[in-house]
Specification:
Structural class: alpha+beta
Largest sheet: 6 strands, mixed
Order of helices and strands: EEEHHEEHHHHHEHEEHHEEHHHHHE
Helix content: 40-55%
Shape: globular
Number of strands: 11
Strand content: 15-25%
Strand order of the largest sheet: 1-2-6-3-5-4
Radius of gyration: 23 Å
């Protein structure tokens, strides 16, 4: 990706010859905590529900009849509005995209509040989501990142339409970037088009007011255990995790490799082999790493028979201690790196993926060509690095969220 800065607008551009569809992603930095939990989610849902010149139905007709894929994604640190379209539909697709961002009316506010409430209630009926929700809320207790589904449900009635309108004004004053990948003959014309028609994407050097999180709230040197009774649950849902180094730290690529070895590489991961195949504790068991701008979250997850709760938690400890005390083999380390590199390659194929990745890296502050730097950092991770990360993080106090029938929560 090449960065072009013109008239205050940052444009990431990649010319991919002989591809039939172009992808454009607009990224907006989120630098303020939500006024109420759920405001940003509502905002993202309402963007596609009609503008000053087009009803929701008219927008849907244009998008569907021309095979244009348009989506809005809201995460803790950014909003992404993206579109994918045939090359010949360039002007139409981008005219619609600009209309959505600039002229959304948010008139469907009450309807979307009602729908969101229903969606949350339905989601929380899932034992896994309910346990995950409690885990996130408690590990980020008191912080914006802890705005869980449950908290959103509690605060939904406090949100006014003006709160959603204010989000638009807020992100317009923040850092932004346009990321485009596709086959175009004249790069200068593409840049000229965006500077003329997307002047609202002028970027600002805003400072985030979201605080960094380096440990969970209430960390007193002991695990924080959250127990959720659900007597009709067939399985116990267990999440156990801690805060680790962010994407900006030198620890991050080492944690990525550790996570791959431990539980994110599917059938070959240690958790899968030891807890599922050998001990038969679960059908699903894994570890995961979720990076954010101001924190990163590492956790174990297992769905198991309620009688196996203690055994599963002990299994997490045993596998963590193995990584702390015994270097991984050369074969395992090489396999983890190849798995990570392979996934990067797989998810960097299409124009939509290229535009999305480049825009994400830029808006998060990781810089240009971060993927190249990241691959190099991954390749340099050693066996000692993996052991050091396990020692540094996996013996720290954790938040443990367990959902199960009440009779099994006496551990």
């Amino acid at each position: 990706m090449k960065l072009i800065q013109k008239d205050g607008i940052d444009i990431l551009i990649k010319n991919t010859k002989n591809t039939p569809r172009m992808a454009v992603c607009l990224y907006f930095s989120i630098d303020l905590p939500e006024k109420f939990a759920g405001v940003y989610t509502l905002f993202s849902k309402l963007l596609l529900k009609g503008t000053k010149t087009r009803s929701a139905e008219a927008l849907a007709d244009i998008i569907e009849n021309n095979g244009i894929e348009t989506s809005v994604k809201c995460k803790q640190d950014y909003l992404k509005v993206s579109t994918l379209f045939l090359n010949e539909d360039f002007n139409l697709a981008l005219e619609v995209l600009a209309d959505i961002v600039q002229n959304s009316t948010f008139e469907a506010f009450e309807k979307e509040v009602y729908k969101l409430r229903g969606e949350i209630v339905a989601d929380l009926d899932s034992p896994q989501i309910k346990a995950s929700d409690a885990f996130v809320e408690n590990i980020f207790d008191g912080h914006y990142y802890g705005n869980s589904c449950s908290k959103t449900l509690l605060e939904l009635d406090k949100i006014q339409k003006q709160d959603v309108v204010d989000v638009l004004a807020q992100i317009m004053k923040a850092k932004k970037v346009i990321s485009i990948a596709g086959d175009f003959s004249d790069e200068d014309k593409i840049v000229e088009y965006f500077t003329k028609e997307f002047s609202f994407m002028k970027t600002f050097d805003s400072k985030s007011e979201i605080l960094d999180v380096t440990s969970f709230a209430g960390d007193n040197g002991k695990d924080k255990i959250v127990k959720i009774a659900k007597n009709d649950a067939k399985q116990a849902q267990i999440f156990k995790g801690c805060i680790v180094g962010t994407q900006f730290s030198e620890d991050y690529p080492k944690i990525v490799v550790m996570n791959n070895i431990l539980g994110s590489s599917g059938l070959s991961s240690r958790l899968f082999v030891e807890l599922r195949d050998k001990q038969g504790l679960a059908y699903t068991v894994r570890s995961a790493l979720e990076p954010m701008r101001h924190s990163s979250l590492f956790y174990f997850y297992i769905g198991t028979e309620p009688k196996n709760i203690q055994k599963s938690l002990e299994g997490f400890k045993i596998e963590a201690k193995k990584l702390m005390n015994t270097p991984v083999s050369d074969i395992e380390l090489t396999g983890a790196k190849e798995n990570i590199m392979g996934r990067l390659e797989y998810f960097s194929q299409t124009n939509a993926q290229l535009a999305s990745i480049a825009g994400y890296d830029y808006i998060m502050g990781l810089g240009l060509r971060y993927e190249e730097k990241y691959k190099k950092m991954i390749s340099n991770v050693s066996k000692d690095d993996v052991m050091n990360m396990a020692q540094k993080y996996l013996q720290n106090p954790s938040v443990i969220s367990v959902l199960a029938p009440e009779e099994y929560l006496n551990f």
